[in-house]
Amino acid sequence: MKKQLRNWIKQQKKQYSPLQLTTWSTSLLDKLTDHPRFKEAKTVLLYYSLPDEVQTHEFVERISQEKQVVLPVVKGDELELRRYSGKADLKKGSFGIDEPTGEIVTDFSDIDIAIIPGVGFDKQGNRLGRGKGYYDRLLPKLQSYNIGICFSFQIVPEIPTEPFDCPMDEVWTQEGCISEKRYSQ
Q1: Centroid of chain to Cα 76
Q2: What is the DSSP-derived secondary structure letter of residue 59?
């Protein structure tokens, strides 16, 4: 079922131009900066996007001027977290993703909010990843408020879950928050 969902979403992505995905990415991330948890956060876990994900490169650069940004680095079967210190300190890593070479973050309690990519999500906050389990192993270690982000066509009625899956606190698309678990002040 998960493989079928990944394939279906992959086909959906082909219907949209890179310009459309970039426009939606900007809209989504601009909306997210108004989120009370994001505004309050001092340290934000983000990701440096692949071409078919919500585009985060410019966003990472922009918010790193006012917040501490942490990005994942693939190390074997795990994600190591490192501080982002600027584009000059990125190097190509696993899967062709630019990865930071900055200081390793070992105290996950410093991370206030985590912005998590996914192949798909449902309105209950369940996440469908790429199938390698990197975030499945990382998420239980975090104490942050976790927000999954994707494009609206990546929202499906139900994501099959396993006991080890960690649902997001919220899920956002370019249309705003779509999950049933809403932030309350």
Answers
A1: 20
A2: H
| 142 close to 114: Cβ distance less than 8 angstroms | yes
**120-168: per-residue pLDDT in tens?**
999 999 999 887 888 989 999 999 999 999 999 999 999 988 888 889 9
Please tell me the distance from the alpha carbon of residue 69 to that of residue 124, in angstroms, as a whole number.
Answer: 27
Query: Which residue type is seen at 87?
Result: K
Query: What phi and psi values does residue 61 have, to the nearest 5 degrees?
Result: -60, -45
Question: Can you tell me which residue has the tokens 């900066």?
Answer: 33
CA angle 142, 145, 146 (to 5 degrees): 80
Backbone angles phi, psi at 56, to 5 degrees: -115, -5
Residue type, 73: V
Decide if 140 contacts 132 (C-beta within 8 A): no
Q: pTM value?
A: 0.91
List pLDDT tens digits, range 71-82: 999 888 889 999
Instruction: Look up residue 21 and give its DSSP letter.
Output: H
Name residues whose C-beta falls within 8 Å of residue 17's C-beta, 6 or more positions apart in sequence: none
Alpha-carbon gap, residue 68 to 42, rounded angstroms: 6
Q: Would you state the structure tokens that stand for residue 120, as one six-digit string?
A: 């798909």
